[in-house]
């Protein structure tokens, strides 16, 4: 496995693979890799010739400096995991490499897709994501890029950027990998205490309750949200950041429970912010 921190070295390797006619699969990550990331790698290995992973905790997407400081870093374990899984190249840049000082910063934003969910409660977050992801796309020139659907809004915003700005690559969404009790895998889960981990298991149970309530005939979005909120708030140290029902494509708030809806939430369990979502088809 090749590990590079330098842009020129990265570009030389990519150019050489491209010259040989090889396709490139790319998964950008912020490290602390888990089985969910390994699913991205496996999907990439099935669909492309060479698999590239980047590991970079991107400071520009954190609206809360404390969250950035506390973000877990496990580079040695990450590299071992990548090697075991057969990753071809890991790009491991530092902040200066990705953000040399510039007097003319660029802000990318897709306001319509960012006005709800995480875009509403984490101002500036998606501008940071689009900034780093577009830079990484230019550096790695992937044929396909793989993103986990746990970060569903991120997947939609990046897909829209690629489509609107004609980036020459395909975005592939990979289903959320879950723990045995249904909790979505996340690099942040390692920060949960035992008690908080128990509270976090309310999240998958809330999705089950939502489906059961809808199947039972509930069609009032406000009532559904009230039921789900009350359920979540039985958890110790749980605070709801948002709980929303939106259209899965344009991410606008739904007025009615009809067609397909995206039920998405962010909660703080203690200090740890967790997100999850599910697309739920509404029976007629
Ligand atoms: O999903 C993440 O881990 C990050 O938002 C990403 C896509 C690696 C950009 O920093």
TrEMBL record:
Catalytic activity reported: (R)-pantoate + beta-alanine + ATP = (R)-pantothenate + AMP + diphosphate + H(+)
Gene Ontology CC: one annotated term: cytosol
One Gene Ontology term of the molecular function aspect: pantoate-beta-alanine ligase activity
GO BP terms in the entry: pantothenate biosynthetic process
Residues at the active site: 37 (proton donor)
Involved pathway(s): Cofactor biosynthesis; (R)-pantothenate biosynthesis; (R)-pantothenate from (R)-pantoate and beta-alanine: step 1/1
Domain of life: Bacteria
Role, per record: Catalyzes the condensation of pantoate with beta-alanine in an ATP-dependent reaction via a pantoyl-adenylate intermediate.
Protein name, per record: Pantothenate synthetase
The organism's taxonomic lineage, starting at the top: Bacteria, Pseudomonadati, Spirochaetota, Spirochaetia, Leptospirales
Name of the gene this protein is made from: panC
């Amino acid at each position: 496995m090749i590990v590079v921190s330098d842009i020129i070295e990265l570009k030389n390797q990519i150019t050489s693979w491209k010259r040989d006619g090889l396709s490139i699969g790319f998964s950008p990550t912020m490290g602390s890799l888990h089985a969910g990331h390994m699913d991205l790698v496996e999907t990439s290995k099935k669909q492309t010739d060479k698999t590239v992973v980047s590991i970079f905790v991107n400071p520009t997407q954190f609206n809360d400096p404390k969250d950035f400081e506390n973000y877990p870093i496990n580079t040695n374990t990450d590299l071992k995991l990548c090697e075991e899984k057969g990753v071809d190249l890991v790009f491991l840049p530092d902040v200066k490499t990705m953000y040399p000082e510039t007097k003319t910063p660029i802000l990318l934003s897709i306001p319509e897709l960012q006005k709800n969910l995480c875009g509403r409660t984490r101002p500036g977050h998606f501008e940071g994501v689009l900034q780093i992801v577009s830079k990484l796309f230019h550096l790695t020139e992937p044929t396909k890029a793989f993103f986990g659907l746990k970060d569903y809004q991120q997947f939609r915003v990046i897909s829209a950027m690629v489509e609107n700005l004609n980036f020459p690559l395909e975005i592939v969404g990979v289903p959320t990998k879950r723990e045995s009790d249904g909790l979505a895998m996340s690099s942040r889960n390692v920060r949960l205490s035992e008690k908080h981990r128990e509270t976090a298991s309310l999240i998958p149970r809330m999705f089950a309750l939502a489906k059961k309530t809808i199947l039972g005939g509930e069609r009032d979005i406000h009532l559904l949200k009230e039921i789900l909120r009350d359920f979540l708030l039985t958890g110790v140290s749980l605070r709801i950041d948002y709980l929303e029902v939106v259209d899965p494509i344009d991410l606008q708030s739904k007025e009615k429970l009809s067609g397909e809806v995206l039920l998405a939430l962010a909660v703080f369990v203690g200090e740890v912010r967790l997100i999850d979502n599910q697309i739920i088809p509404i029976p007629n």
